[in-house]
Each structure stands twice: as structure tokens, then as C-alpha cells.
């Protein structure tokens, strides 16, 4: 069976991290979300992949190339304007031939384990099937109403408790979907939505089925949700290897992976689950606590403590810093004495809507330069290519190229 993966959108709600990469390339346990999706397909023997790309496509194509290093064959299709999920699927029509009686479609920005995909492959039926999960908090998702396993209605991101059965964005379609996509009108949000296409099929009397799963399906709606997803994946990781050099006097407890050419200097204390990438230089006397992921080429100097955070590639973090419940994008330089305040249940405004974040420190995009003794208030984000001089306290979000003297 072929698989079409949708990966052309930005993932606006994950800004500032998506200012420089799409949501599918955000790392969880040091691998892009999309790599987790592709690995789960490969484990189900699905190796013929059509990847729909658009926003920041070079970053995706440079990483995955033809897919052979990941055990699959990837063909790319560009969706020049991101006009919605139905429009994205339509771009792959030329790759679906008469031999493809059905095919898989997946959002590239949700984490799935192999069994999640297997649950759908085993149980699909009708002209279209969608995989569903039961969730208490359904805001931001499409939900379905159904009779037995037959879907009667799909409601896209409507307020109210209409149903707790959430559409995961993982489908098995028959080629009939393309004819119905052609009939799909543009929605109130200005998008051609695949959920509208499915509703048309239902209204035409066709059988659309829902396949429930209790296997892992994780979505990061907002950037801060990545911390939870990272912790879940780190906790369930097996076979974590120590490949780098660990000096005498380092204490390691729990599950910890240390990449090639990484050096952990004396006096460093690490409590897993923690994943540290390749070519890092950590310590002496650094503390890394659960559930933390550190990318490749990162240096962290003495007496800095990091907890429940994601530090992406190529960062330099100097001494006596404290970072918790935070996400630091790539290529950030952070001076000594850096302190991130953190708070529980912050209300954060995004697109004029209030969102409640869990315990949160800060979120940094890429390429920022932070001087010494800088304090960042809880929930404040720093976009891309900002410069903060020593001794400042950052109270408000900084937009791209900001300078704080
Ligand atoms: C209309 C629709 O499909 N809604 C579903 C979608 O919402 P959701 O709002 O999550 O859909 P997104 O806009 O995030 O898009 C999902 C995926 O499609 C890609 N993309 C999106 C638009 C586009 O023009 N091109 C493109 O490739 C994105 O990069 C992403 O990987 O997934 C949710 C699960 O996470 C479901 O509960 C929703 O029912």
C-alpha cells in the first residue's frame, strides 16, 4: 500500500519554532516528527511514500533525500500554496494508479507508533476510513459522530462537547476521494479541508468508517506541547546507547543516550530519561534532569542545570545557567548566569485567542545571541536572530531581529 504524507504546512501555532522549519521537522527525542512517522510506516512494510511539501521544503528534502537511508522510497510533490488538506492530497493524484485500490494518508506532524498504523490497516472498510482516538480535550481537532463504526458527521474545530471521538488525520482512502475533492468547496477558514470532502461522501450515502485506536498518537498543537511529547517518547525509548566519552566522576542514573564524539566532563550529573546527540561538550559539573533532549554540536558549561527541556542543535550555553520546561531552537548562544522563570497554567494569547499552557519556561526560535546574566520571564518567547545584551530581563515576546540593549 502506498502512503501519502502531508507535510506542506507551516504549523503556525508552533511559532516561533516554525519560523525557520515546518512543524513536521520539529525534533522529538532528537528526530524530526516526520522521521517518527516514516519509521512507523516502514515497520508496517509501507515503503512507497509520496511526501507533499511546500513551506521550508528544502529542509525536509535535504534531510530525507530519496528515503533510502530510512528504509523507504520517497517521491516529493510540491504544493505551491497551502490551500488545505484536501488540496494537499489532490497533489498526489498522479502517483495513484489503477493498481492502487486503496492508499494511506497521514498528517506528517503527529507522532504515531507502528501499532497505531497497523490498527487502521487491519480494520479499514468502506470508501474511506479514518482512525480515531478518544480525548477529553477536543479543542483544535476535528471530531466525529458515528453509528457503530459508520461515520454520520464530521465536525471541524467547533466549540462545544459535540463528541470526544477525535479524527487523527490518518486515513485509508479509495481513489474515489479524488472525484469528491474536486467537488469540495472552500471552507469558512479559506481552506479545502479533507474533512469537508468526507462529509460530502457521507451525504452522498457512501460508507465512511471510523476505526478506533488506543495505540500512541500524539499531536503538538502548540509549541509547548512538544515538551510533553518529548517526555512521553523519552520514557518509552528502549536501547539507549552511550557512544561518546564519559569522564571519571560523572554520575548517570536512569535511561540516558549519549551520541558519538560527545564528551561528558567530570562532575556532571545526569538523570534520565535524557538523550544527548553527537559532538557535544558537556561540563564539567553540569546537571541534566528528566526529561531532556539535547541535539548535536551543543556545548554546556559548568554549573548549568537543565530540566524537562529541548535544546536543539548547535547551541552554546555558558556557565551558571538554569533552564527548565523550555525549548531552545538551533544555533543559540546563551551567556553565563542565564535564568528562565517558570510558571504553571499561564494564559498565552495567540491569534487573539487565549490558550492555557502547562508548566512553562521559555521558547526560543533559532540564531539568538543572549548576553550574560539575562532573565526571561515565564511564557515569554524569543523569535529568531534576536540580540539581548547582558543584564536584561525580558518581560515581553521578542519578534524577529529584535535588539535589547
Ligand atoms: C481539515 C483537516 O484536515 N483537519 C484535521 C487536521 O487538522 P489540523 O488543523 O491539525 O491540520 P493542519 O492544518 O495542521 O494540517 C495537517 C497536516 O497537513 C499538512 N498540510 C496542511 C494544509 C495544507 O495546505 N497542506 C499540507 O500539507 C500540514 O503540514 C500537516 O502536516 O488534523 C487533525 C489531527 O491532527 C484532525 O483532528 C482534523 O480533523
Automatic annotation (TrEMBL):
> What InterPro entries does UniProt report for this protein, alphabetically?
Bifunctiontional_GlmU_arc-type, GMPPB_C, NTP_transferase_dom, Nucleotide-diphossugar_trans, Trimer_LpxA-like_sf
Residue ranges of every copy of the Nucleotidyl transferase domain listed in the record: 2-233
Domain named Mannose-1-phosphate guanyltransferase C-terminal: residues: 270-380
* Classification via SUPFAM superfamilies: Nucleotide-diphospho-sugar transferases (SSF53448), Trimeric LpxA-like enzymes (SSF51161)
Q: Which family does the record assign?
A: In the N-terminal section; belongs to the N-acetylglucosamine-1-phosphate uridyltransferase family. In the C-terminal section; belongs to the transferase hexapeptide repeat family.
Q: Write down the NCBIfam families for this protein, in alphabetical order.
A: Arch_glmU
Name the chain's protein: Bifunctional protein GlmU
Amino acid at each position: 500500500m502506498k502512503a501519502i504524507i502531508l507535510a506542506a504546512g507551516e504549523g503556525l501555532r508552533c511559532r516561533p519554532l516554525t519560523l525557520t522549519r515546518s512543524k513536521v521537522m520539529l525534533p522529538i527525542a532528537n528526530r524530526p516528527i516526520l522521521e517518527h512517522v516514516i519509521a512507523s510506516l516502514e515497520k508496517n512494510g509501507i515503503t512507497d511514500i509520496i511526501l507533499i511539501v511546500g513551506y521550508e521544503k528544502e529542509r525536509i528534502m535535504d534531510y530525507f533525500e530519496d528515503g533510502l537511508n530510512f528504509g523507504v522510497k520517497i517521491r516529493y510533490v510540491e504544493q505551491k500554496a497551502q490551500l488545505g488538506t484536501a488540496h494537499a492530497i489532490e497533489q498526489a493524484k498522479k502517483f495513484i494508479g489503477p493498481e492502487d485500490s486503496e492508499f494511506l494518508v497521514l498528517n506528517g506532524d503527529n507522532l504515531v507508533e507502528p501499532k497505531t498504523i497497523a490498527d487502521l490497516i487491519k480494520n479499514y472498510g468502506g470508501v474511506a476510513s479514518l482512525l480515531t482516538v478518544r480525548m477529553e480535550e477536543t479543542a483544535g481537532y476535528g471530531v466525529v459522530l458515528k453509528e457503530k463504526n459508520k461515520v454520520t458527521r464530521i465536525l471541524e474545530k467547533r466549540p462545544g462537547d459535540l463528541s470526544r471521538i477525535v479524527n487523527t488525520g490518518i486515513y485509508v482512502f479509495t481513489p474515489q476521494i479524488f472525484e469528491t475533492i474536486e467537488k469540495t468547496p472552500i471552507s469558512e477558514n479559506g481552506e479545502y479541508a479533507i474533512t469537508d470532502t468526507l462529509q460530502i461522501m457521507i451525504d452522498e450515502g457512501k460508507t465512511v468508517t471510523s476505526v478506533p485506536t488506543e495505540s500512541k498518537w500524539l499531536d503538538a498543537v502548540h509549541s509547548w506541547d512538544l515538551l510533553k511529547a518529548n517526555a512521553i517518547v523519552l520514557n518509552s525509548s528502549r536501547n539507549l546507547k552511550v557512544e561518546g566519552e564519559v569522564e571519571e566522576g560523572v554520575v548517570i542514573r536512569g535511561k540516558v543516550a549519549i551520541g558519538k564524539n560527545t564528551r561528558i566532563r567530570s562532575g556532571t550529573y545526569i538523570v534520565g530519561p535524557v538523550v544527548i546527540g553527537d559532538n557535544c561538550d558537556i561540563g564539567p559539573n553540569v546537571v541534566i534532569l528528566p526529561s531532556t533532549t539535547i541535539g548535536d554540536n551543543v556545548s554546556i558549561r559548568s554549573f548549568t542545570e537543565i530540566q524537562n527541556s529541548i535544546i536543539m542543535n548547535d547551541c552554546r550555553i555558558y556557565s551558571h545557567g538554569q533552564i527548565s520546561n523550555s525549548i531552545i531552537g538551533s544555533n543559540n548562544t546563551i551567556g553565563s548566569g542565564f535564568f528562565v522563570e517558570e510558571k504553571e497554567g499561564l494564559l498565552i494569547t495567540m491569534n487573539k485567542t487565549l490558550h492555557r499552557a502547562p508548566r512553562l519556561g521559555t521558547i526560543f526560535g533559532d540564531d539568538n545571541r543572549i548576553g550574560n546574566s539575562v532573565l526571561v520571564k515565564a511564557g515569554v518567547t524569543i523569535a529568531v536572530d534576536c540580540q539581548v545584551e547582558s543584564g536584561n530581563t525580558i518581560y515581553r515576546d521578542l519578534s524577529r531581529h529584535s535588539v535589547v540593549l
